[in-house]
UniProtKB/TrEMBL annotation:
PANTHER family attached to this UniProt entry: DUF2256 DOMAIN-CONTAINING PROTEIN, GSL3115 PROTEIN
A Pfam family that the UniProt record links to this protein: DUF3253
Protein's UniProt name: DUF2256 and DUF3253 domain-containing protein
Superkingdom: Bacteria
SUPFAM superfamilies recorded: Winged helix' DNA-binding domain
UniProt source species: Actinomycetospora corticicola
Length: 119
């Protein structure tokens, strides 16, 4: 079976025997993600990431905090994890890549500072 990507957090969902009967319908990696489906703020973060990257030269990167600041204003710090989730969903859609130290990384396992760039 092929792995899937969580519709909320964008992390990889590995096939497990417990989902064998219903694998086609699995969309979320956890109950928490099932409860927090992407909302207007999440969609605004995705749009912000794409718009910020469209304004940059080819191959240039942005930090997820730039999208969080654009969407959240003074409360941008609360949007850092939602911005990272939005970035992982955009990676799954094939729109962007997540990098660390200039190298493309797996969005499901990346820890620490990340940068975002167009594919």
């Amino acid at each position: 079976m092929e792995d899937k990507t969580c519709a909320t957090c964008g992390r990889r969902i590995e096939w497990r025997k417990k989902w064998a009967r219903d694998w086609e319908n699995v969309r979320y990696c956890s109950d928490a993600c099932r409860r927090h489906k992407p909302n207007d703020t999440d969609r605004a973060l995705e749009t912000s990431i794409v718009e910020l990257l469209d304004r940059r030269a080819a191959g240039k990167t942005i930090c997820p905090s730039e999208a969080a600041k654009q969407v959240g204003g003074d409360a941008w710090r609360d949007l850092m994890e939602p911005a990272r989730r939005a970035a992982r969903r955009l990676v799954d859609a094939g729109t962007i890549e997540i990098t660390q130290q200039g190298h493309v990384v797996d969005p499901s396992t990346a820890k620490g500072p990340i940068r975002l760039r167009r594919v």
